[in-house]
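Researcher: Structure prediction, please.
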Amino acid sequence: MAAPNKGRRPAGGQSRPGRALALILIAMVALTGGMFWSGHTTPRLGIDLAGGTSITLKAKAEPGQESAVNETNMNTAVGIIERRVNGLGVSEAEVQTQGRENIIVNIPRGTNEKQAREQVGTTAQLYFRPVLTVADGGPQVAPSATTSGSPTGTPSAKPSSSGATVGEKSATPTATATTQGRAVSEALKAPSPTPTASSSASTKPKATDTPTTPPAADAATLALQKKFTDLNCLDPKQRAAAGQGVKPTEPTVACGEDNPGVWAKYLLGPAEVEGRDVDDASAGIDQQSGQWIVDMAFTGEGSKKFQAITGKLSQQADPQNRFAIVLDGEVVSAPSVRTTLSANAQISGNFTQQTAQDLGNILSYGALPLSFETQSVDTVTAALGGDQLEAGLIAGAIGLALVIIYLVAYYRGLSLVAILSLGVSALLTYVIMALLGPAIGFALNLPAVCGAIVAIGITADSFIVYFERIRDELREGRTLRPAVERAWPRARRTILVSDFVSFLAAAVLFIVTVGKVQGFAFTLGLTTLLDIVVVFLFTKPVMTMLAKTKFFGNGHPWSGLDPKRLGAKPPLRRSRRATAPVDAKEA
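Model: Predicted structure follows.
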């Protein structure tokens, strides 16, 4: 005769269901408290529900480069714009091509909507050009020169502990004299500080050097001189037109804002380093000056170019020892170079936190391969999306009501467990969606609402699988407590396999699709994971505890577990005793 198995847990048993219930309760309280503490008590809404801005951009090619407007460059531009906007924290931004030369950008209403609108069409063509001369921003070249220090707002450069510092403003004036009033013709005739020409301190050109210009270049020199002299950087139209359509290999003119409202104009040589040579850029605060700066790291090839040009510029006199950082035809900063710089650099200027972060964002994600002009900017209202959301919520409520009616009619008392589990799942879903808004920029759109509605059926299916396994055990003649524990391992396997298939489908859908369909896939995957959490930490422990009550344990007709209604067989313990040796009296 076998020894009694005292203390042995039933197969699939759970000795302390209170622990699991306490764990999920703590998680719910913590998540809910975090939601209220963050101040975001409602999920962020997508553009179809909250409204926002729809921008239409039209690609335009430079003269002679009409073939640049092609599918490859358009797709590249879509990817860059999407990364820029999402880099600002405006998620659910929808960027897609329309036709051959148009890009549609839908930006939902949010905190950074304004900044996103400003950056979507910014070409971000970045060039490092040597400065030939600089003057006040007005239409006349000032003849005077300043010898006491830098001109107002002129940045300087100095090495930092982490590498070279480019464009950091110095509180103390520089020792070199400025040549703001130098004649344009002399600047154009002066040798350009290109990295292909070797120079040293002994061969450094002086301000009085006036090399001759070949006759073939006289016409271009005079035209550029006149353009520089007539340029009025105080006029927004002239500022925008300065330098447009000029190839990187050609000299050009540009405007730059030294201080708010104080403009300077620059005569610049051919570009020596391009934006594609920048590997990474980020905003930060300079520890010495306390000003906002942009840290840059160059690629391997870019480091070589940057080191070569700064090595040549450091041998020149001011302002020809400076290079201009030109972004989309405008001088962002024009630091002077006192020493050879290498792989890392800093841009400083009149940056605020927002402008420094915007510039770092643009440089990090790259320049657009095409120029774009804004065709239209439309404000999207949430009226249509609100009507659709209302219709979707009504449909979801009807579906939920039908599920509850079915559960009550078929499972009776067990329906209470299912309804409570659905409530816990809904609460967790809502709180997590509210927290994911500020955390990762998740925005709830109509497809995401549909995914949540579909999840009702997935969650209810898990309950039904477990309930039916329990009923199967009762039909075999077992009592409720062992039936609950013996049914759990088989139901658990079925639930895990079913949820794995649903989650895999959601993951594949999220990866291979774009736009709003990803919202459906994300919500479906999230609710599938929550279904496992709720079934394991709530539904199963609750059933274990209810099996100890008289209402469910004795098989009350309204419990949904009445052995008679289920057609249960005689108890298994009687059949087992009949097979064992017994005496005549027991027989």
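Model: Residues 1-8, 141-187, 189-213, 574-580 have pLDDT under 50 and may be disordered.
Researcher: Thanks, that helps.
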